[in-house]
Amino acid sequence: MPGRGAQSIARRAGRQAGFTLIELMIAVVVMAVLATVAAYAYKGHLRETRVLDAKQVLNRIKVQQEVYFQKHRSYVSAQYHPPLHTDYAAKPWTPLPADWANLGLSFPGDGTTYFSFRTVGFAVSGGDAISMQLGLNSAIPSFYVMATGDMDGSPATQPMSIVIDSQSAKVLITNEGQ
């Protein structure tokens, strides 16, 4: 009989040493939820970093526009650089076209960006739809600088745009909730 008691204790000890299927499933679900939360937070952090980088470049362009205006009494207009893309990948900084080179800009960093940049200068009585949306006074020369980029990689949503202008300190961000 002592043998049967030892077998019973060994069986109980063996059962208590492992995990049940339910316990394993709960652990997997908890890990999946944590991974989802972490991935979402990481994506948000990357997006915020990219937006801050774009704002820094916009402010550098704004300063260079003012320097150019002091020398030439006009603002520079320059088309999107790097050219607009529809993908989420980083775009390389290519050599600056002449219209951008007039501002004396160089773009440091790792040589890539998630945004395309454009600046539009206006003489007195000038303007376009964006300058009207910004409320720019057309009685004085002015400009705005825009960064446009795809922050979610989805063709179903509009790209994010960040705009700053020469007459105010406000920053206009459209499609921010992507």
Low-confidence segments, given as residue ranges, are none
Could you say which overall geometry the principal axes of the C-alpha atoms support?
A: elongated
Tell me, rounded to a whole number, the average pLDDT.
Answer: 79
Number of β-strand runs: 7
The percentage helix is 40-55%
Helices and strands, in order, run as HHEEHEEHEEE
Helix segment tally:
4
Distance between the termini: 72 Å
Q: How many structural domains?
A: 1
What's the short version?
By secondary structure, the protein is of the alpha+beta class.
What does this protein look like?
The protein is of the alpha+beta class and 178 residues long. The chain has one domain. The protein contains 4 helices and 7 strands; from the N terminus they run ααββαββαβββ. The protein has helices spanning 2-17, 21-72, 98-101, 129-134; strands at residues 78-81, 91-92, 112-113, 116-122, 142-149, 160-165, 171-174. A hairpin with a 5-residue loop joins strand 6 (160-165) and strand 7. The longest helix is centred in the N-terminal third of the chain and has 52 residues, at 21-72. The N and C termini lie far apart (72 Å).
Features:
178 residues, 19% strand, alpha+beta, two-stranded antiparallel ribbon
Please specify the SSE layout and strand pairing:
Blueprint: H1 2-17, H2 21-72, E1 78-81, E2 91-92, H3 98-101, E3 112-113, E4 116-122, H4 129-134, E5 142-149, E6 160-165, E7 171-174
Antiparallel strand pairs: 1-4, 2-3, 4-5, 5-6, 6-7
